[in-house]
Amino acid sequence: MTENNVILRVENLTKHFPITRGILFQRQIGSIQAVDDISFSIMQGETLGLVGESGCGKSTTGRSILQLYRPTSGKVFYREHELTKMKGEDLRRNRRNMQMIFQDPYASLNPRMTVRNIISEPLEVHGIGNSSERRERVQELLRLVGLNPYFINRYPHEFSGGQRQRIGVARALALRPELIICDEPISALDVSIQAQVVNLLEELQERFGLTYLFIAHDLSMVRHICDRTAVMYLGKLVELAPREDLYESPLHPYTQALLSAVPIPDPIKERRRKRIILEGDVPSPANPPKGCRFHTRCPLAVDVCMEEIPEWREAVDSHWVACHLV
Q1: Among 253, 245, 220, 221, which Cα is nearest to 323's?
Q2: Domains of the chain: which residue ranges?
Q3: Beta bridge partners of 215
Q4: How far apart are CA 237 and CA 35, in angstroms?
Q5: Average pLDDT for residues 213-242, to the nearest whole number?
Q6: What angle do CA 321, 325, 326 make, to 5 degrees?
Q7: pLDDT average, residue stretch 19-44
Q8: Which residues make Cβ contacts (< 8 Å) with residue 156, sequence separation at least 6?
Q9: Would you state the CATH architecture of domain 3-97+177-321?
Q10: Which residues of 58-72 are buried (b: 16+ CB within 10 A; e: fewer)?
């Protein structure tokens, strides 16, 4: 990975949410450690998948990268620009190059706005074009995502879930960004519609040279769309590797357990393989365990796992892992 090809660099990113008590005089009594000291890079034109259980910090990571949540500590670089130090007009200008597709197409579109207003809003905010030029741009974007351009005066409730998500994609493309964070863009859709949205994202990436951070639960879908995959557990990255390396030879016990749950279409292989069943529940991010955060559920844990936080290191070429036993 050459430095010139890196479009996004995340260094020791941490985001904690305070837990407060009291009504008039609130005092902090703890914190939710949603994201804790993670580092990775994304190269221009690639798709990096980010997977893990619900509540592990995936969406918080995406929002912290875009500064929708201000990080507690750490740095986020878009090319040579450090976003964590920016505010006001500087941050707004850089946001043109980075957009987000949200998880819920029903909640992410304003029900009181027409499709025309929803998609043209980013153009108005950044002062791009006049009214007629913005209208033409909206119609062009609707065609691009496979919707009828004559729908521009309709409201979100007049569309299906898949169509709403296409409107969300059109809005994200309005400013011609380089990087798009896809926050579980298909999880709220019917299975029959999911493939259509993923194919659309792949076509747009090929056409415009887009870079994606693709946050998802579905490991088989991540394998289909992503070049590299990062695995997250309780606010920490535990493994990051090229797609085939991760799926063929996972190093971290948590990744091995996740992949053992993915169905295999071959019934003979499905019968032969061994499922790894994790014991217990995910600990609370308000009180994470000492040492390796996975040791309370890990079938291979030893004494050092309970005391020391494993180092995030490159175990083999381009294959990163945080585990004492690797």
Answers
A1: 253
A2: 3-97+177-321
A3: 50, 183
A4: 9
A5: 92
A6: 45
A7: 89
A8: 106, 109, 110, 111, 113, 115, 118, 164, 167
A9: 3-Layer(aba) Sandwich (3.40)
A10: bbbbbbbbbbebebb
pLDDT at 119 over 80: yes
- Taking alpha carbons only, the member of 118, 102, 120, 108 closest to residue 63 is 102
Token pair of 85 as six digits: 């130090």
CA distance linking residue 23 with residue 27, whole number of Å:
9
Distance CA 308, CA 306 (A): 6
- Check if the beta carbon of residue 260 is closer than 8 Å to that of residue 273: yes
Q: Residue type at 190?
A: D
270: pLDDT strictly greater than 90: no
Q: What's the DSSP call for residue 130?
A: -
Q: Would you give the DSSP letter of residue 114?
A: -
DSSP string over 278-322: PPS-PPPTTSPPSSSTTTTT-TT--HHHHHSPPP-EEEETTEEE-
